[in-house]
Amino acid sequence: LESQYNQIFDKACQQFPNLKEIKDNDIVEQANAYFQRIYTSRQTIPDAIEMLKRFKNSTDSRETDIFKCMIHNLFDEYRFFDKYPHTELQITGVLFGALIQHQLVQQLSLGLALRYVLEALRKPVNDKMHLFGTFALDQFMGRLHEWPKYCTHILQISHLRQNRDLTGRIKAAMGEPDEEEPTEHLRNFAGGTAQRFSPAAQP
Questions:
Q1: What separation in angstroms does the CA of 104 have from each of 36, 113, 183?
Q2: Contacts with 4 (C-beta within 8 Å, 6 or more apart), sequence order
Q3: Which residues contact 125 (CB under 8 A, 6 or more apart)?
Q4: What pTM did the predictor assign?
Q5: How crowded is residue 107: how many other Cβ atoms within 10 Å of its Cβ?
Q6: CB count, 10 Å around CB of 114?
Q7: How far apart are CA 75 and CA 30, in angstroms?
Q8: How many other CB atoms are there within 10 angstroms of residue 170's CB atom?
């Protein structure tokens, strides 16, 4: 039934192009409505993650479109995270990290998400983006063992070495002892480069 509907809708869109725009607007509005529920605490992040899991694997094309739209909007909004108030920034960091932890972003999207977090962690500790990075990283500590090279990039950030709790947990995820200084192979590892609903716009 779903595939038949899509075929009919596609044919209708060919005849009436405005139909696709109406559908797209509906998807964006619904995605924004879900974000608003998250940022106003009407939906917890664990509940939002479970919802996104359902949408990602749904046979309903509308739900998969909403999932894609929410992920796209969150990534697109990254450039504005430094304008967010503290509470909204924390919610965003936790949500962003949870997407990584629960494998809701994969392949190229996963690589981009990890780069965004690494880029944020490299900002000065008093920078809002650094705060976002720490909130996000804390959510996917359980997966760090999958990316040892990524861990070495984090451990090479000079201002993070003063955070013994954080570096200790990263080393534990890598299966390394919590030493005062990075081991030799970490010191020699080449550093990597990293390259809408907006809470910042809310009254």
A1: 20, 11, 33
A2: none
A3: 159
A4: 0.76
A5: 7
A6: 20
A7: 17
A8: 22
Joined tokens for residue 137 = 């990283």
For tokens 């990254």, what's the residue? Answer: 78
In three-state form (DSSP H/G/I as H, E/B as E, the rest C), the secondary structure along the chain is CHHHHHHHHHHHHHHCCHHHHHHHHHHHHHHHHHHHHHHCCCCCHHHHHHHHHHHHCCCCHHHHHHHHHHHHHHHHHHHHHHHCCHHHHHHHHHHHHHHHHCCCCCHHHHHHHHHHHHHHHCCCCCCHHHHHHHHHHHHCHHHHHHCHHHHHHHHCCHHHCCCHHHHHHHHHHHCCCCCCCCCHHHHCCCCCCCCCCCHHHCC
Q: Give pLDDT tens digits along the chain (203 positions).
A: 445 444 543 444 454 344 344 357 888 899 999 999 999 999 999 999 999 999 999 999 899 999 999 999 999 999 999 999 999 999 999 999 999 999 999 988 999 999 999 999 999 999 999 999 999 999 999 999 999 999 999 999 999 888 888 889 998 888 765 554 434 433 433 344 333 555 655 55
| Distance between CA atoms of residues 34 and 51, nearest Å | 10
